[in-house]
């Protein structure tokens, strides 16, 4: 990935995921998204490759969720 920084700020990650920095911070603090804390002010950084792995895992998790929870049309659910 030429030109792409190795490490991203939480704001960068939030922009990529189209969510808030607070949500990304929660992902990091829960351990869902690997990150490092650097500097005296404790700034968080997420490695770009870790973010891509996280996104790929979300696709896998979502596919499994959809398989376990099939979508039922309104007419299908009325028959239940």
Provide structural commentary.
This protein is an alpha+beta fold. It has a single domain (7-70), classed as Orthogonal Bundle (Multidrug-efflux Transporter Regulator, Chain: A, Domain 2). It is built from 4 helices and 3 strands; from the N terminus they run E-H-H-E-E-H-H. The protein has helices at 10-17, 21-30, 48-68, 74-78; strands at 7-8, 36-38, 43-47. The termini are far apart.
How far apart lie the N and C ends? 51 Å
- Reading off the top of the CATH hierarchy, the class is best stated as Mainly Alpha
| Main β-sheet, spatial strand arrangement | 1-3-2
Mean pLDDT: 91
Q: So what's the overall shape?
A: elongated
- If helices are DSSP runs of H or I spanning 4 or more residues, what is the number of helices? 4
Q: How many separate domains make up the residues?
A: 1
Oligomer: single chain
Q: How many strand units?
A: 3
Outline the biggest β-sheet. Answer: 3 strands, antiparallel
CATH architecture: Orthogonal Bundle
Low-pLDDT runs: none
Return the structural class: alpha+beta
The share of residues in helices is 55-70%
- Could you tell me the strand content as a percent range? 5-15%
Order of helices and strands: EHHEEHH
What does the radius of gyration come to?
A: 17 Å
What is the CATH third-level topology name? Answer: Multidrug-efflux Transporter Regulator, Chain: A, Domain 2
